[in-house]
Design a protein that fits this description.
The complex is a heterotrimer of chains A (about 325), B (about 525) and C (about 270). By secondary structure, chain A is an all-alpha fold. Helices cover about 80% and strands about 0% of the residues of chain A. In chain A, α1 runs antiparallel to α12, α5 crosses α8 and α7 crosses α10. In chain B, the strands form 4 sheets. Chain B has a 6-stranded mixed β-sheet with strand order 6-7-8-3-9-10, with helices on both faces. In chain B, α3 packs across α4, α4 packs across α5 and α13 packs across α14. Classes of the chains: A mainly alpha (about 325), B alpha/beta (about 525), C mainly alpha (about 270). The interface between A and C is large, with 52 and 41 residues.
Chain lengths: ~325, ~525, ~270
């Protein structure tokens, strides 16, 4: 078990380093001179030079990379060129909206998908199964941001039970949750459809295994075999999808913030792109990738918790 | 009084009749053998009794266990019977246990489901049952998982959970088919002991007449969904009144006619062959342990000779085979074919001299190719495919007993036996001197196996072939080889002329293998006309 | 034929035909703005109404289908073209080649297509090409994994050993034996990635990282519609329905193909 953890941890660090290299290369190497790029074509040479100094661009590339890396380790992501404040402060505020949104959506989609997937597998080939399969097929096809618009039309403009947009801040947690409800639902439903289908097919696959026959021969009913034996074995593919879903949800959260005018990471990064604020773009992308890699790592840990074979093999 | 009584049991699935008027009775403490070839309906009979037939199955007739009707029970009362009054074990021990659950919990579950027993108490009983099936503490604690056990040990766990509640009837469906002969002998002995100690009835389903001969008091012979003959095992086997029973016996004892075309010239020489694998470290800083799959193996195969290589699974046969075929390189020693070194880089002309037939008739062919392309594949070894390649494919098909027109068909249109014939045709196409037969008849039913063995014997004479016949099945090796090598843990432990070696084995491993191989008592066979 | 396969074929076919027809004919010219007729509800003249520039929505949908389908299709091409050979290589050479490709895969997986699009756009500016590249890159590891998984299970089969005994090398075996036998898997995955590509393109164009004005795309139509959703809901609803119908069609097609092409199911027939 310790060796498995160590191996995963090592792979986490290597992935982070590789990802940071890629991001650094795209943002700071490909544009040639980031300072000139950020200021645009009409900038005076001495303004560019001043920015180069401010950004620390006058040292060698490897030193710049190491400096950036070291800075991030101490929580220093640089100063935003447009906002003139530390990027870390800027990002921290936004993360406090985007991460809870993605987390809420993940929770919601799991809560919806689990019972539906179980039901469909238990009743496979019967009307309930067909209904679930048809419904989820439709759910997968719906773009979440469009679904969000429909939700706004119905629940914010027509019935007025939820706000149409904006975010009041976490000072009033209830109001904050209310503001995040529609976006979370819009994000969660298409993902729940995918998850329910994966759970169903994983369950059906495990229900065909020999050990299910053994369990039935022991005297377990079909439902008992499903919940006691099939479910845990089916969790392995489900975990994979759950891990991948987080990255989709995070990306989805960034897009959906636009629909609700929520000041999250998405708003920050799209403004940064239009204003050519590479410092902010670089940091936000790194944080997003870090979140995805971290979730992959957590998924690997969860695998080991479920599957004793992994703990030994390492 | 009979424990189990079945009258006119018939099963059809989606309108196809698969089981017709099966009737037999089984007394407490009795072992009842159900034998037949694959698809004869043996397993279906068992599943019908368990009420575990697939959807769309229609069952008629009567089946009573201890006076309780088995065929007209609600699903709920069947659940109460399964695992409680009827236990069942299956063929594949590797997949029969839940990989995510400890063996203790899996045995205890039987008790908890039926007796509502608290977990601690159930685990205590599970401990007793695991001891009973030969998995004692401290080597086999309750908290280990199935993947930490071998196939034989897993089958013991499966038995423990099936007998945990002392069922009146235990159904064992090919319980030893996936196991080595030595393990098979141990499991069969365990089953017999359990029947004696607990007084339960055992319904033993197998394709192997010899297993039944050694174990069952009563036997029924099944053919395409019917019992063609049944009675006390010994008289039934001695008389072989029904033609099908007689045919099965003839096939299982079949000896292709002996030929001796061996010459003294060496064809394949293996000298001090060595192949080792590194295993995972047992702990973080321990050195990696080595597994010597092939450890200092030397032997010579002569032109026209049929040489057997026997050993239990994991003894290194497969690794050695891959090296002889030139697919893997050795780490030490040498293999020479006609004096030239064999290895991954050997010239194609040499590869054309050694061809191979594998075990699995289903996985041996690309399903998207037609037979002519499949059989012609080894022509890749020639500088250019011969102009008359189509004729040569047709010729090879005829040689193995198929029709030339078969070359336009796809492989799924053929039965298992026909596929092995096609595999032999493919091996013949480059006119090799040596064919490696890697468990080539192990997956076939006895009657088909006998035919394929005859074909191999004839081809050997007509083509002057040498065989390296690799198998775990001693009776087959005995039927077709001149000389035998016995392999154990990467080494050749004994070698000698086939008959002499099997009648008077010298090495302990050979003795164990011979003793463990189930046999029909020779005097039962004598009456054969 | 299963109803799912037929429905899927029809829905996906309609989108494809609409895109192709738009090359030669559209009910109205989408480059002509008629502000006087803006935001009209569906009528006999404009079956699906008009948008905020008075353009015919049906015509916009047809031209938008071109962008959406082309982006998704090329992205699938990129994913297959690079992912399949990588997957074949990884399966054929267990050891360093496998390890390297799979680690590379994991790395790409850490970059959702939105993040790739953000990176590219930040440096090169927004365009439909960005969307293609971002979605295409994300498709590479998907196809590499599916290919590797399918190929690895085939490499253990005896017909591969027979081909090795027949002197064939790994590349030749991959081409002759492996690829044709995983083609089913790839076709099915291809339709799935195609439909995901349409969704992704819509999302990227919606936030301004994909297709740019004046090029119409379904995602951009939704972005334009957002501010007018209270005045004229149909402007937002119609392009969304087009996306749903096309993606649903492709998914049904993929599922139907999976069943139709599965040799296990075919043998049972």
């Amino acid at each position: 078990m310790a060796r498995y953890l160590l191996k995963r941890l090592l792979s986490l660090v290597v992935s982070l380093l590789a990802a940071s290299l890629v991001i650094f290369a795209v943002i700071e190497v490909i544009p040639g001179d980031p300072a000139a790029f950020m200021l645009g074509m009409n900038a005076a040479p001495d303004t560019v030079e001043a920015l180069r100094d401010a950004l620390g661009l006058n040292v060698s590339l490897p030193m710049r990379y190491l400096g950036w890396l070291g800075g991030m380790l101490t929580g220093d992501f640089g100063i935003s060129y447009t906002y003139k404040v530390p990027v870390a402060d800027l990002v921290a505020d936004r993360l406090l909206i985007s991460l809870p949104l993605a987390g809420l959506a993940l929770l919601l989609s799991t809560a919806v998908a689990m019972p539906i997937g179980l039901l469909a597998a238990a009743r496979r080939g019967r009307p309930a199964d067909y209904m679930v399969m048809g419904g989820t097929q439709l759910g997968i096809a719906v773009p979440n941001f469009w679904f969000a618009m429909l939700l706004v039309l119905a629940f914010a403009l027509h019935w007025r039970v939820f706000p149409a947009g904006g975010f009041p801040g976490w000072g009033d947690p209830l109001a904050a949750l209310r503001a995040l409800t529609l976006p979370a639902v819009a994000l969660a439903l298409p993902q729940a459809a995918i998850l329910a289908r994966v759970l169903r097919s994983a369950l059906i696959e495990t229900l065909g295994q020999d050990y299910i026959r053994t369990a039935r021969a022991k005297g377990l009913s079909g439902a008992q075999a499903l919940t006691r034996h099939a479910l845990r074995n089916a969790m392995i593919p489900v975990l994979t999808i759950l891990g991948m879903q987080f990255s989709f949800l995070l990306a989805g959260a960034i897009i959906i913030e636009n629909v609700f005018y929520i000041p999250g990471l998405g708003r920050l990064i799209f403004q940064a792109i239009t204003q050519r604020d590479l410092i902010v773009v670089e940091s936000v992308v790194m944080i997003l990738v870090f979140a995805v890699i971290l979730v992959t790592f957590l998924t690997d840990i969860a695998y080991a918790a479920v599957d004793p074979r992994l703990r030994v093999r390492g | 009084m009979s424990l189990l009584s079945i009258t006119d049991l018939s099963v059809s699935i989606n309108g196809t009749a698969l089981l017709n008027d099966v009737s037999f009775t089984l007394a407490p403490g009795e072992i009842f053998g159900l034998v037949g070839e694959s698809g004869s309906g043996k397993s279906l009979t068992a599943l019908a009794l368990m009420g575990l037939l697939p959807q769309g199955a229609l069952t008629t007739g009567h089946a009573e266990l201890e006076g309780v009707d088995l065929l007209n029970q609600s699903e709920k009362s069947m659940c109460a019977l399964r695992g409680n009054r009827i236990g069942m074990i299956f063929q594949e021990p590797m997949t029969a246990l839940n990989p995510l659950m400890t063996i203790g919990d899996q045995v205890a579950e039987t008790l908890m489901v039926h007796r509502a027993m608290p977990r601690a108490e159930a685990l205590a009983v599970a401990r007793e049952k695991l001891d009973r099936v030969g998995l004692p503490e401290p080597r086999f604690p309750l908290h280990i998982y199935p993947h930490e056990l071998s196939g034989g040990q897993r089958q013991r766990v499966a038995i423990a959970l099936a007998i945990a509640l002392k069922p009146a009837l235990l159904i064992a469906d090919e319980p030893t088919t996936a196991l080595d002969v030595t393990t098979q002998a141990q499991i069969l002995e365990l089953l017999r002991d359990l029947v004696d100690d607990e007084g339960m009835g055992l319904m033993l389903i197998t394709h192997d007449l010899a297993v039944v001969a050694g174990l069952a008091t009563h036997t029924a012979v099944m053919q395409s969904g019917r019992i063609v003959e049944q009675g006390l095992t010994e008289p039934l086997f001695r008389a072989r009144a029904h033609p099908y029973t007689a045919a099965l016996f003839a096939a299982s004892a079949h000896q292709p006619k002996r030929v001796d075309i061996g010459k003294p010239e060496p064809l394949l020489v293996v000298e001090h062959a060595l192949r080792a694998y590194t295993l995972a470290r047992p702990s973080a800083f321990a050195p990696r342990p080595m597994l010597y799959a092939v450890n200092d193996v030397s032997f010579t195969l002569h032109e026209g000779e049929s040489l057997g290589l026997v050993g239990s699974s994991g003894c290194g046969k497969s690794t050695l085979t891959r090296a002889i075929l030139g697919l893997d390189r050795l780490q030490g020693g040498e293999i020479r074919l006609f004096g030239k070194p064999v290895g991954p880089n050997m010239p194609n002309a040499m590869r054309a001299d050694v061809q191979v037939v594998f075990q699995d008739p289903y996985g041996s062919f690309n399903p998207r190719w037609r037979v002519d392309r499949l059989v012609a594949e080894p022509f890749h070894l020639l500088p250019a495919p011969p102009a008359d390649w189509r004729e040569r494919v047709a010729e090879a098909l005829v040689e193995v007993g198929l029709h030339p027109d078969d070359r336009r068909k796809y492989i799924h249109e053929f039965s298992g036996g026909q596929r092995q014939r096609i595999a032999i045709a493919r091996a013949l196409i480059t006119r090799p001197d040596l064919i490696v037969l890697d468990e080539a008849v192990s997956a076939l039913d006895v009657r088909i196996r006998a035919q394929v063995l005859d074909l191999l014997a004839n081809l050997r004479v007509s083509h002057g072939l040498a065989y390296l016949f690799i198998s775990h099945d001693l009776s087959v090796v005995r039927a077709i080889t001149d000389r035998v090598l016995v392999m154990e843990a990467g080494r050749i432990v004994e070698e000698g002329p086939t008959e002499a070696l099997f009648t008077a084995p010298r090495h302990e491993v050979t003795r164990r293998l011979v003793a463990a191989t189930p046999q029909i008592p020779p005097d039962w066979m004598e009456k054969i006309a | 034929m299963k109803p799912g396969l037929a429905i899927g074929g029809v829905l996906a076919g309609v989108a494809l035909i609409a895109a192709l027809v738009s090359l030669v004919w559209t009910p109205y010219d989408v480059t002509v703005l008629t502000i006087a007729e803006k935001l009209q509800p569906p009528s006999a003249a404009h079956w699906l109404g008009t948008d905020h520039f008075g353009r015919d929505i049906a015509a916009m949908l047809m031209v938008g289908a071109r962008t959406s389908l082309a982006v998704a299709l090329v992205a699938v091409g990129i994913g297959m073209g690079l992912g399949v050979p990588l997957g074949l290589l990884a399966a054929a050479r267990p050891g360093w080649a496998d390890e390297l490709t799979m680690r590379g895969n994991d790395l790409i997986f850490a970059f959702p297509s939105l993040v790739i699009a953000i990176l590219i756009t930040a440096v090169f500016g927004p365009s439909a090409i960005n969307a293609i590249i971002a979605i295409g890159i994300f498709n590479i590891p998907v196809f590499a994994r599916v290919t590797r998984g399918g190929a690895m299970s085939l490499w253990t089969l005896d017909y591969i050993r027979a081909a090795q005994v027949a002197g064939k090398g790994r590349a030749r075996i991959s081409a002759e034996h492996i690829l044709p036998n995983i083609a089913n898997l790839l076709i099915v995955q291809g339709t799935i990635q195609f439909s995901l590509g349409i969704l992704a393109e819509a999302g990227l164009s919606y936030v301004g990282l994909g297709a740019q004005p004046p090029l119409p795309s379904w995602g951009r139509m939704l972005a334009d519609a957002q501010t007018m959703v209270t005045l004229a809901p149909h402007v937002a609803i119609v392009p969304g329905l087009a996306i749903v119908a096309t993606v649903l069609g492709l998914n049904l097609l993929g599922d139907g193909l999976r069943d139709a092409l599965d040799p296990r199911l075919r043998r049972a027939r």
